[in-house]
Amino acid sequence: MLSLTDAVPVAHGLGGQKDLPIPLSLAVTGSVAALVISFTVLAVAWRSPRYAGRPALAVPALGRVVLSGPFQAVLKLLGLLFLAYTVMVATLGEDLLTNPVFGIFLVWLWVGIVPASLLLGPAFKAISPHRTLVELLARLTGGDPEDGIADYPARLGYWPAALGLLAFVWFELIYPFNTELGPVRLWLAAYLGVMLVGGAVFGTRFFERADPFEVYSSLLAKLSPWAVEPDDDGRDRLLLRSPLANLDTTVARPGLVAVVAVLLGSTAYDSFREAAFWVRWVQTSDHSPTLVANLAMLGTILLVAGLFSAACVLTPVRDGTARRALPAAFAHAVVPIIAGYMVAHYTTYWYERGQVTLAQVSDPFSNGSDWFGTAGLGVDYWLSEHPGFLATLKVVAVVLGHVVGVVASHERAVGLLPRRHQLTGQLALLVVMVVFTAGGLSLLFAG
């Protein structure tokens, strides 16, 4: 059997401090300075909301194509075929790491969501196979796909999605048997079962709140230039809009803070567990490595949620505004930070392991077949061969994500905070952003 490194490596980091074209201390110092300077410029020049109600540019010609019935049907068909293929290799394929289900699940789905959503918008929603199955079932029974037999409880918000994301990152990063076919098959079956039952009960609106991959994709899509909104006649239209204006339309719902904390905290833990000092400590410790890993990841997620929520609660509010509502109101500002960390942490993994998966899908049963003509493809290691470029990409992605997060936070603050506290009221959040930046860069280059 192939080793884990040969087939689906779990180490997603991109080198260490030696690969930085500048010293790590200088990178951290420059990044923190960029945040502080950005905040200062915003405080002086940005005194009122600029994105609320800002008109977007309609793209009618392109919209008629991508929103048309035939185009949407093709996307849904591709999603169903993707599901059928995944079910086939999960149930009939060999229990080997060359089985493409591992790459489909851990690389194409989880990591591929990031570039697809940032470039194209809510990509997972467009091809979601269980959403399509629920829509087909509703039409066959004469019902409305959006409405099930019960209303989705508003108080649940994104909490089911947060739990689903936690279940995924736990499986990927901690579960000791995640390279065996049986557990992967079980996870996927449980996920699909929950989605189909939830969609049947609550309608397709259930997926917008509870599907971990759709919620993740849709949040990242807020950073894309695309939006779909109804016109005066209630018909959907395609809009071209500033990503910051798109991000500002994120609706604060229960569980949103939990979603962003799981995404950011688990990525930070993934970097942390690869750090040399941590690996040495785990190897020499008398404690169970699995127990330590569980506590470390959960602690990192709770630390992210706690720091961010505390900074928001410390923010002065207008009369009638509940402090407990502020973390959800500002949570959208963490989405660019998540995107930056994902790009920095997973780019090489997605690029190289994605190519490996492309070769593996042509041989679904590991018998030497070549269904799609890609089995003989080699892997281009250009990114790994240019560590200086990768290190620069890391720093730029992390810093850009935090700067955009500061802008998004400032836009929300000038609309929510009392005028006399619009500057000082953001200082706690700025401090947290600085901590995330310095800590994130240190962890990414801790190898």
Automatic annotation (TrEMBL):
Keywords: Membrane, Transmembrane, Transmembrane helix. It comes from the Bacteria. The chain crosses the membrane at residues 20-44, 65-88, 100-121, 156-175, 187-207, 251-272, 292-314, 326-344, 388-407, 427-446. The keyword Transmembrane applies. This is Fenitrothion hydrolase. It comes from Nocardioides aquaticus.
